[in-house]
From TrEMBL:
Family per record: Belongs to the TRAP transporter small permease family.
GO CC field: plasma membrane
Keyword Oxidoreductase set for record: no
Transmembrane intervals: 12-31, 43-64, 95-116, 136-153
Protein name: TRAP transporter small permease protein
InterPro entries on file: DctQ (IPR055348), TRAP_DctQ (IPR007387)
Function per UniProt: Part of the tripartite ATP-independent periplasmic (TRAP) transport system.
């Protein structure tokens, strides 16, 4: 499970970092190309960053699908539980299990429909600018949705066994808490 967790985190972070870098370079290119600096201006104009927007859109699609699964696993996915938390424990627990199961059914259905779409997509369909096969772009739908379905089931089973739901602590920074604890031990 840790391998899947780390792969999910690595994929999201890599896509986010790469998209940010590509957008930065494209914007820098756009604004520096207009500066009247002989030689540099000619070189910048000769660069082609017309592909940047399309690639970043595709990266954000993948990031959003896998980010939603990460959100379910860590407890930061959107949920409205104000009314549910006011119910007695028996009804509250049943509604939580029902909600998690409904989320799994929904995302499993979306994953299956996405897999059908990818399978039946014409093999010659490519993106407009980069000419990436659209199958690779649309593959985010079944992969991300099935991962999200798995995360809903994982959280549901954990809740049934322990009664605990994942909670996100905004003050927690992974890896930093260990360093702080080690530093405090060193002072003592």
């Amino acid at each position: 499970m840790k391998i899947l967790d780390r792969l999910e985190e690595w994929l999201i972070a890599t896509l986010m970092g790469a998209a940010t870098f590509i957008i930065f370079v494209a914007v820098l290119h756009r604004y520096l190309s207009g500066l009247p600096i002989p030689g540099v201006q000619d070189w910048l104009i000769s660069l082609n960053t017309s592909w940047a927007q399309e690639v970043c859109i595709f990266m954000f699609i993948w990031m959003a699908k896998f980010g939603a699964a990460y959100g379910v696993r860590t407890g930061i996915h959107v949920g409205v539980d104000v009314l549910i938390n006011r119910l007695d424990t028996g009804w509250r627990d049943r509604l939580i299990v029902f909600g998690l199961f409904a989320g799994a059914v929904f995302t499993g259905t979306i994953g299956s429909l996405g897999a059908y779409l990818v399978y039946h997509l014409p093999s010659d369909q490519v993106s407009e600018v980069t000419e990436i096969p659209m199958r690779w772009v649309y593959l985010a739908i079944p992969l991300g949705s099935y991962l999200m379905c798995f995360r809903f089931l994982q959280v549901m089973v954990h809740f049934i066994r322990t009664g605990d739901l994942p909670r996100h602590d905004p003050a927690h920074v992974e890896g930093l808490d260990d360093e702080i604890a080690q530093a405090q031990e060193g002072k003592a």
